[in-house]
Amino acid sequence: MTTAAGKLVKGQQQPQEQQPTTTTTTAGLKRKQEVQLVKADSKRSVAAVPGAEEESDCERLKGRVFKNFKTACDHYGFPGSHQVGSYGPKGEGITRTYSNATAGKDKVLNGRRQMLYRLKDDAVRAQFAVNRELKKPVRVFRKVSDGVLDLGLFVVESFVLAGEDDHAAQFGAEFVRFTKASD
Prior knowledge:
- The longest helix has 13 residues, at 122-134.
- The N and C termini lie far apart (72 Å).
- By secondary structure, this protein is an alpha+beta fold.
- It has a single domain, classed as SRA-YDG (PUA domain-like), CATH 2.30.280.10.
- It is built from four helices and nine strands.
- Residues 14-44 have low confidence and may be disordered.
- Residues 1-54 are annotated as: Disordered.
């Protein structure tokens, strides 16, 4: 204890300085525990993350090409919308994902053995986290000049922060990283 003059009273301990504290919201903490974030080299594209190779030219990939996305959804019996993006019943994970091939947005890597799909928002991210937890595969489609290419089934490997060359301001700061599953 100190006197009005600021001197310690005999037998009292020196007061401890309070250390600044940081708080993490429950959602933020859960998010950190729930997934592994891999940060790309800040000057390079996310495609340069270890384990990734060259970006694949989807126009040259072999595989089933549907006339349009509605035809692809009808073939697999997918419910819901036929719009670009991801679909899955709330809380059950994503069933299918469709990339419209906007340049610089999503990346198919290693001859389609991996894919980086740009996350639109936290709700879609949460759905992909369910897929990761349950090891539930996602059917992935990509727009090509002849129609819609079925890239196959993928599992969610991780979530990856976009690098400077990945147009984060335009498309979003995070990708879901898929690895090819056996079809």
